[in-house]
Amino acid sequence: MEGTMKDLFVPAGRVALVTGGTSGLGHAIAEAFLQNGVDVAVCSRHPESAPDLAELAAAEGRRYLPVRCDITDEADVAALGDAVEQGLGPAALVVNSAGMNILKPAEDYDAASFRKVMDLNVTGMHLVSKMAAKRWMIPAHKGRIVNLSSAKAFLGTDRNYAAYCASKGAVNMYTQQLACEWAKFGITVNAIAPTFVATPINADLLKDDAFRSALLRRIPMGRLGTGRDMAAAALFFCSEGASFVTGTTLKVDGGVTSMQ
C-alpha cells in the first residue's frame, strides 16, 4: 500500500496568493482557501473592495492580507512578494485569476486595447508566477500554481473576443510550458477553463436576455458556472492529491466545449 488516502484533498500549503482576489472567481477561490485552513493574500488595484474576506478570515481563524498591486508592473510584483512574505510568509499556492476583456469587434480592435488585455491576462500572470517560483517555490522544491483560462480558449464567438480568446489560448500553452520547465522543482502548474460565470467581467453581456438564453441552450447542463464550481477545481489542483497532475487545463464548463 502506497500510503493513507485520508487527507488527499488537504491543501498542499498554508499560505496562498490570489491575484484579482477581491472580485469574481478570485474572490470565490480566496473564500475557499480561507474555509479550508489556508491563510490568504489577495492583490488587486482595489484591495479594500472585499471587506467580507477580512470578516471571513477572522471567523475562520485565518490570516488575510489585501495588497494593492499592478501585476503588469514588474517592480509592483516584486513589492507584492515583499508584502506577502512579511505579512504571511512564503506562499506555496498561487492562483492567477486577474483578467479582463475589452469588447470590440476584431476589425476595430486597436493596438492599445489589444495590448491591455494581453498584458493583464498573460504578462501579469507570468510576472506573478515567475516571482513566486523564484522567490518561494524553487528554493522550497514545492509549489502549486493555478491559472484561470476560459472555455473561450477553445471556442470562438461571433464578436468582441479577439484579444480575450487569444490571451486565454496563450494561458493554456503557457501553463503547459511552465509545467514542463518547473516539474523538476516540485512545482505543479495547471489551469481552469470556466464557461460563463456571472462576474463583473461579463455582467453586461448577461443582462442581454437573448444572449443569456442562447448561452444556456449551448451548455448541456443548462446553467451557468458558479464561483463554487471554480473554487472546487482550484482546491483540487492545490491539494496533496494532485501532486502528479501538471500541465492540465481542466474544463469546468458544464459540457459547453463538447457541444457542437
Mean pLDDT: 95
How much of the sequence lies in strands comes to 5-15%
**How many E strands?**
7
Over all CA atoms, what is the radius of gyration? 18 Å
CATH topology: Rossmann fold
At the first level of CATH, the class is Alpha Beta
Task: Tally the structural domains.
Answer: 1
CATH homologous superfamily classification: NAD(P)-binding Rossmann-like Domain
Read across the widest sheet, the strand sequence of neighbours is 3-2-1-4-5-6-7
- SSE run: EHEHEHEHEHEHHHE
The appropriate CATH architecture is 3-Layer(aba) Sandwich
Structure in words:
The protein is of the alpha/beta class and 260 residues long. It contains eight helices and seven strands. The protein has helices at residues 24-35, 51-60, 74-87, 111-140, 162-182, 203-206, 209-218, 227-237; strands at 15-19, 39-44, 64-68, 93-96, 143-148, 187-194, 249-252. Strands 3-2-1-4-5-6-7 form a seven-stranded parallel β-sheet, sandwiched between helices. Strand 2, helix 2 (51-60) and strand 3 (64-68) form a beta-alpha-beta unit. The radius of gyration is 18 Å and the shape is globular. The mean pLDDT is 95.
What's the short version?
By secondary structure, the chain is an alpha/beta fold.
Keywords:
seven-stranded parallel β-sheet, Rossmann fold, alpha/beta, 8 helices, 260 residues
